[in-house]
Amino acid sequence: MNHLTYATLRMRHRQRGVALLVGLIFLVMLTLVSIVVMRGTMLEMHLSTATARHEQAFEASETTRAIPEVVINDHVFNRGWPKAWGGDVPDGMFDLNTSFANRTAWVDLLKPNSTAKTGLQDYCGGTSLAIFYLPQSCSSHDTTYNYAPSKWDSTVVMSVCEGTTTQSCSSSQQVNSKIAIVRDGVMPNAGSGGAQAQGYSSPGIGTATGGASLLLQIRSQATVPGNGQAATIAQYKQVITH
Predict the structure, then answer these.
(1) Beta carbons of 110 and 71 less than 8 angstroms apart
(2) Which residue numbers delimit the Type 4 fimbrial biogenesis protein PilX N-terminal domain (predicted)?
């Protein structure tokens, strides 16, 4: 009887040892499964965050790309930049506030700032502001320059706080934008050539003042908090009215 009892106790101890081992194996397996699931969840979160930052950067790029367009209108019309920016056009003729619907904050961001190296930039790293109504050449620009957007020099540099037009925030909260504007040539407007050929007394008189259009390539690259980046390119057509 004592022998049977001893054998039974040994078997029970063995069973408890096997149950502990099986339990540990299941615990390890559950831990591994949890780690895999957690890694998958973290990856999805990173992808979602990256997508959101890219979308934010894309919107910032699209927004800032349109900002210099009104300035280009006045620049081409007046054949220069305002004296307040270092040009030779009287400030009163360069009516930026009206053009920007009194958005003076944007005008301040476009104003050249040599200390912070923001706003409208000097052409080709020189001492004169970029111009667009006349062809320009730069020793560092080769024949492929106009066809390599990633090499284009920044024409306008801006840094604003996320969601505002102010700069009073830390660098980690700022949206940085670099806008490159490249002259892409000049083309006659529809009918202008025919008007000259037909003469101003012909039916072409209505298109005689058609003139020409200045074509520009504008590339905007924006970097948002979290290092989200995006770049957009569009062709801009500026009608030369005189």
Answers:
(1) yes
(2) 16-62
Q: Both tokens of residue 167?
A: 């700069």
- The maximal CA–CA distance of the chain, rounded, in angstroms, is 133
Q: What is the DSSP code (8-state) at residue 232?
A: E
- Alpha carbon distance 128, 112 (integer Å): 11
d(CA 49, CA 39): 15
For residue 182, how far is the Cα from the chain centroid?
Answer: 16
**Angular region, 191: left φ>0, alpha ψ -120 to 50, beta rest:** left
The token pair that represents 2 in the structure block: 């004592």
Tokens of 220: 């905007």
**pTM, 2 dp:** 0.70
Q: 225 with 177: CB under 8 angstroms?
A: no
Question: Alpha-carbon distance 113 to 167, whole Å?
Answer: 13
Which residue is associated with the tokens 């022998």?
3
Tokens of 133: 């109504």
**Tens of pLDDT, residues 179-194:** 998 888 877 776 665 4
- For 200, list phi and psi in degrees, rounded to 5: -75, -10
Range list of H helices, 131-217: 192-198
Domain ranges of the chain: 34-88+131-240
- Structure-block tokens of residue 43: 């990856």
